[in-house]
Amino acid sequence: MSGVETAAVAADLHNVSTIGLDLGGTKLAAGLVRDGKVLRRLETPTPAHLGPLLDTIESMVGDLQGSEQLAIGLGVPGPVVNGETTFFSNLQGLNDSKIEQVLAQRLGRAVAFENDANLAALAESRHGSARGTQHSVYLTWSTGIGCGLILNGEIFSGRTGMAGEVGHTRMGFSGTMDGSGTLGTLEAQACGAALARDASFVYGQPTSVPAIFEKMAGGDERATDLIRNAAAYLGRFLHNLQLLLDPEVVVLGGGLMAQASLLLPMIETERRRTRALHDFTPLRLSTLGPDAGIVGAAEFACQGERQVRGR
User: Fold this and answer.
1) pTM of this structure
2) pLDDT at position 244 over 80
3) What are the b/e assignments for 57-71, b being 16+ CB within 10 Å?
């Protein structure tokens, strides 16, 4: 196929709707997407077990596509190697489920799988806050902590698919344990689940992340210390990330960034505690917000279709 024909195929595919699915630790979102825009969106709490999850995905896909069979992309909260999921630290009921195989059987066609943070990074690179750059990082701060890397305009997932699994970065030799069973990781110290865990211990009763921010707004010093500690861990990590990759931009997303006005000054204070750096990578908030994963999954599925048709 000639270059002109390939470009025509790409243009045509961006005028076709695609389904993007975003499987998170607490919610499952799906959308009908065309050229980076979500035309219709569905969301539900994430079922804890495979059977109900497959039922829910099948229902969502059927609702979104109508009588057509559209390309489908799915972002999952864990590494993906050669199109196969390997480990879910925050959805352990799905470990070893072979979800990519059983879902394809259920839907009657292949589903393009990729790590959710990678797909959000792809979406922000093509349609959001990192548009126009070649080297960007997307960091999601929510129930867990994930990261997607875009190098030379494409997803970089490394040799085994583990590139970007920064939640498991060791920030110390001891400390609390994350979902993988590793001590002292970034996720174990600073993710939303860790914040709720620590606050529940401090207050002696179950305490949610929104409740912590409410207490902070009311002047509670313990809540302020909990949040400042988590933000400091993130700031230290961003300092290390710049020294490793030196990207053009870092895009921040995820549920906790709804409190960006409070968190960014704390993150920046810790990130800038260094004499090694003088020109800091710009931090930008996600333009696509909670739709980044959906848009990225749809873009990834569209990209796969383009490669098939462009042969």
Assistant:
1) 0.86
2) yes
3) beebbeebbeeeebb
Query: Mapping DSSP to helix (H, G, I), strand (E, B) and coil, where does residue 289 land?
Result: helix
**For residue 252, pLDDT beyond 70:** yes
Angstrom distance (rounded) from CA 256 to CA 128 = 19
β-bridge pairing 154-155 and 145-151: antiparallel
Local structure of 214: helix, strand or coil: helix
| Residue of 212 and 183 predicted with greater confidence | 212
How would you classify the pairing of strands 249-253 and 136-141?
parallel
Residues 136 and 274 in one domain: yes
Inter-CA distances, 150 with 153, 158, 212, 246, 250, Å? 6, 11, 33, 12, 10
The answer to whether 260 touches 92, Cβ cutoff 8 Å, is no
- Residue 99 lies in domain: 3-119+290-309
Q: Identify which of 82, 72, 164, 152 has the alpha carbon closest to the alpha carbon of residue 116.
A: 164
Task: Give the Cα-Cα-Cα angle 140, 142, 147 (nearest 5 degrees).
Answer: 25
* Mean pLDDT, residues 62-69 taken together: 87
Q: How many residues does the chain have?
A: 311
Residues 297 and 282 in one domain: no
Task: Report the range of poorest mean pLDDT among 121-125, 128-132, 226-230, 299-303.
Answer: 299-303
